[in-house]
């Protein structure tokens, strides 16, 4: 218990330092546009890569900017694969951090980052449809992934199970955003609309039939 308390105290101290850094360095003004954000990151050269990693980490923990948007900016600055690698590492570290903080500090911590309205909206769903909901929510860009990581820490899901779900599902949207920013993909607006509609349909079907599919897959594996 003492180790958990020390971890929580250290993590919270680092978060406070991170927030102060964002304010002092002019991040919130720069983040008003993609060009402003690019100039902000490049302004820290030769430490631009480190600053980008820290921004992606803080985007999970305090959510000043969606990770997908900053991943696209990173793709334009550093190329698809570098941006994706840094973003993925930062997002996983941030996801684990907020999950563990919520697990150790409980609801009082969660309510500092998640409004009661959002918490009431998603917490019961995560508890009852745990794996199915988290997998689908992390895969598709309709849900506040970072907030769900906090709320997952309030449920009975094990750390190992949460980590496996995050590792298997969170990279894909970040890779897509990094590829868009790095010009590795050229997706017309109509295709984006179609992909969004298809993603929503898959999510709704998954929520309705996810438990049946999960049971079927489990039975297939256990045979």
Summarize the helices and strands and which ones pair or pack.
Layout: H1 2-24, H2 27-30, H3 34-42, H4 48-61, H5 67-78, H6 80-105, H7 107-113, H8 116-128, H9 130-139, H10 145-152, H11 159-169, H12 171-181, H13 189-222
Helix pairs in contact: 1-6, 3-5, 4-5, 4-6, 5-6, 5-12, 6-10, 6-11, 6-12, 8-9, 9-11, 9-13
Number of helices: 13
Oligomeric assembly: single chain
Structural class: mainly alpha
Q: Roughly how many Å is the radius of gyration?
A: 18 Å
Distance between the termini: 41 Å
Please tally the β strands and state the result.
0
pLDDT < 50 stretches? 217-223
* Proportion of strand residues: under 5%
Categorize the overall geometry.
globular
Mean pLDDT rating: 78
Largest sheet composition: none
| H-E string | HHHHHHHHHHHHH
Portion in helices: over 70%
Describe it.
It is built from 13 helices and no strands. Helix 4 packs antiparallel against helix 5, helix 5 packs antiparallel against helix 6 (80-105) and helix 9 (130-139) runs parallel beside helix 11 (159-169). The protein has a domain at 2-115 and 145-186. With 223 residues, the protein is mostly helical. It has helices at residues 2-24, 27-30, 34-42, 48-61, 67-78, 80-105, 107-113, 116-128, 130-139, 145-152, 159-169, 171-181, 189-222. It is globular. Mean pLDDT is 78; it is low at 217-223.
Give a quick summary of the entry.
This protein has 223 residues and is an all-alpha fold. It has helices spanning 2-24, 27-30, 34-42, 48-61, 67-78, 80-105, 107-113, 116-128, 130-139, 145-152, 159-169, 171-181, 189-222.
